[in-house]
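Deliverable D5.2: sample structural annotation.
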Amino acid sequence: MAGNISIVLKIIQKQVKPFVTPSVTLFSRKSNHYLVLVSCILSLRTKDKTTIEASKRLFNLADNPKKMVKLSQAKLEKIIYPVGFYRNKARVLKEISLRIMRDFTGRVPNNLDDLLSFKGVGRKTANLVLGLGFGIPAICVDTHVHRISNRLGWVRSKNPFDTELALEKIIPRRCWIESNTILVGFGQNICLPISPLCSNCHVRRLCKRVGVKICR
């Protein structure tokens, strides 16, 4: 199973290469843990294009927690608009930045428990920060990874947490970090939630199409 999954991931990675890089992956290339955390929070329920633009505006003014806490709530909301739930996210970013300054000497913690202690940070965000921010092997399961893993027949799970645990057993550890970037790009452009583009999918012969009723 592990060998087959590695092959599928490589095929998908090659197919999604021309598409837009997921926003969090894009900012992870700057080797700044704080930027990864902030862009993760901004990306929740928001399209990548909107997240990237909002993140760039924000990071031009505040690329560290010290600068972030100095921004007023109103100004922060204006900068990140129109990301989804921008008012709540502005509040969360200020609270997290204050805690980083107060409890973690101004640095983003590099362990799951501490990251999950932040209000507004769930397993998806925490695992992305660990993987893309710190290079610590972690499997981030969002709606795309959950859907595609079940659709391909890799797992049979009803929620992201169970999917994460199942994938840890079958995906080679060396592939954990990059799996989210690969599958998110695939889910956004080919393996769509409704009417996936199966005719244009490079792994269609290796896919069980679990739950797929109509495909194009």
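Annotation notes: The first helix runs from residue 2 to 16. The radius of gyration is 18 Å.
The annotation will be released with the project's public dataset once the embargo ends.
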